[in-house]
Amino acid sequence: NQRELNMKLSRLSPIQFEDTQVLDDIEKASQGMYSAIYFALIVSETFVFYIPYFITMGWYLFKLKPILALSIVIVFIPVMFSRIIRAKVYTKVEDKSAPKRREMNYYESCCTQRALFKETRLLGAYTYFHNLYRECLKAVQKLSWRATLKTGMLDLLMSFVSLAGYILILYLTFTATMAGDISIGAFVAVTN
């Protein structure tokens, strides 16, 4: 949380705050606090919903017909793969955007904070800082857009793979029902 981050920052020497790498790390840590909540939700969703669901369904499908249990893997693996890749992509984006976001925050403070705005206005530098702010904002947005596009395309591809798994399950249960290997009730249970 923010208090722990502030406690760690209080242990740094003042000269370390002049190092851009340290400032970038502080920015990443600050943003990481909010990302940790999202990460915790993904992990809890995986352990509370996906894993029990797929284990239960896999066991049930295996009891009906062993080949059906293999098709559940086609549904489960893309979901996990997509989540892992998404985390890696956004970690890289955060590493690239932290310096620009730190710069952007400084330029914004030059244009909006009372103590800095007086000097900015007195020197006639508002337009200069505003233009720098907009350039940094565009760079951060461009990085974010690329990551969103990349993860969106990956999610779309993985959704198609999962859909193929669901279709395979339906096809196999339908053919097993028609062959008399499983009952109509089991077919309805699987499709639901």
Describe, in plain words, how this protein is organized in 3D.
The protein has 192 residues and is mostly helical. Helices cover 90% and strands 0% of the residues. It contains six helices and no strands. Helix 3 packs across helix 4, helix 3 (66-112) packs antiparallel against helix 5 and helix 5 runs antiparallel to helix 6 (184-191). It starts with a helix and ends with a helix.
List the helices and strands and how they pair.
Elements: H1 2-10, H2 20-64, H3 66-112, H4 114-123, H5 126-179, H6 184-191
Helix pairs in contact: 2-3, 3-4, 3-5, 5-6
Number of strands: 0
Total helices: the number is 6
End-to-end Cα distance: 42 Å
Strand residue content? under 5%
- C-alpha geometry: elongated
Class by alpha and beta content: mainly alpha
The radius of gyration is 26 Å
Flag low-confidence runs. none
Overall pLDDT, averaged?
A: 84
Order of helices and strands: HHHHHH
Helix amount: over 70%
**Main pleated sheet:** none
In short:
This protein has 192 residues and is an all-alpha fold.
Short key terms for the protein model shown above:
mainly alpha, 90% helix, 192 residues
